[in-house]
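seq as requested:
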Amino acid sequence: MGASLAEAPCPAQPSGLGGDSGSLAAWSQLRRGHGLVGDAAVGTHACGQEPHHVVGGGSPIDVVQVFVDELREALRVRLGESESTLIFSKVNTSWGSFYYDSTQDALRVIVKNKNLDQPVEWLKYEFIDQKDDGVTIAMSWEKRMIPFNVQVDRKALQMEAFANDFRTTRPYYDFIAAANWCVQNNYGLEQALQWMDRAIYFRIMGEKNFRTLSTKANVLMKMNRVDEAKKVMEEAVPIGTMTDVHFYGRQLLNINQVDEAFKVFKSNYDKYPNQYTTNVGMGRAYSAKGDYKKALSYMQAALTQAPDEGSKTNLQAMITKLKDGQNVN
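C-alpha cells:
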C-alpha cells in the first residue's frame, strides 16, 4: 500500500452529538444516530486528533483535480455508505467538530469509499500511488478506506521556493544549486540565467569563478545558445583548477565536441605538464581523435603516476583498449 503517514488512535465511538472531538466515525456508528443531523457541525468528523488534522503547507494543490489555492486547511469528512464528502475548512484551529462552521468551507469533494477485507483498529493515513506530480492519500479505519487524490505542480512550486529563498542575500553556490535543478528539469531556464548573473556579478557574495561561469554556460547550452556558452567557458577555463578543466574536457567529449575538448585538454597540459590528471586528459584527447599511438604514450606515463590501485586498474584497462585499437572514451 505505501508508507504510512500517521496512525492516530480513535475512540470507539464519537463523543457527543456535535462531532467526535478528533475521530473519524465508522459508518455503522452514524447509522445508529451518532450525529448525522443537518449540515452544520453534526455529521461532520475531524480526521485525526484535536484540534484538527491540517492538510497542506501553504502551497497550491489540486484535490481530486479541483484547484485549491494556498491550502492549509482542516480536513473533515461526512461519511456515507458508498461515498463520503471531504470537507476542507478554512479554520484549522477549532476543537474537533464542536466549533465547525460550514460557512468557512474552502472545498467539498465527494469520493468513493472502499471496503477493506481486514479491519484497521487505529486510524491510519497512507501515501499510496506516489508520483512526481501527485499522490493518493488514503484514510483507513475499521473496514473502510477513504482515498483522495492530491496533485501538485511540483516544478512550479520548486521555482517558487527558490524565488522566496532568493529574496535576500544568498551565497553563489545556492544559485548554482538552483540553476543545476533548472537544467536537469529543463524548466525555468531564463530565470536560471538571471540567477547565475546574480551569482557572478552581484556586489554582495557574488563571485566570478569556474563554478559560477561553467554553471551559466551549462544553462546556455541547455537553451541551445552554444556560441554564448563557449564564450563564457573561454573566460572560465583560465581560472579553473586542473581538475575543473579536466572534467570540462570530458564533458565536451561526452557531447562529441572533440576539437573543443582537445583544446581544453591541451591548455590544461600546458599549464600543468606531465601530471597524472593532464596525462590522462591528453590520452583521452588523442584517443578521441583516433591517434591511439600518442594516446597510449600519455596513458603509460600516467600509469606510473597513478595515486591509488583503483586508478591503476582503470588505466590498465584503457591501455589494453588502446593497444587493441579502441577508443577509451
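The chain has two domains: 4-152, 155-323.
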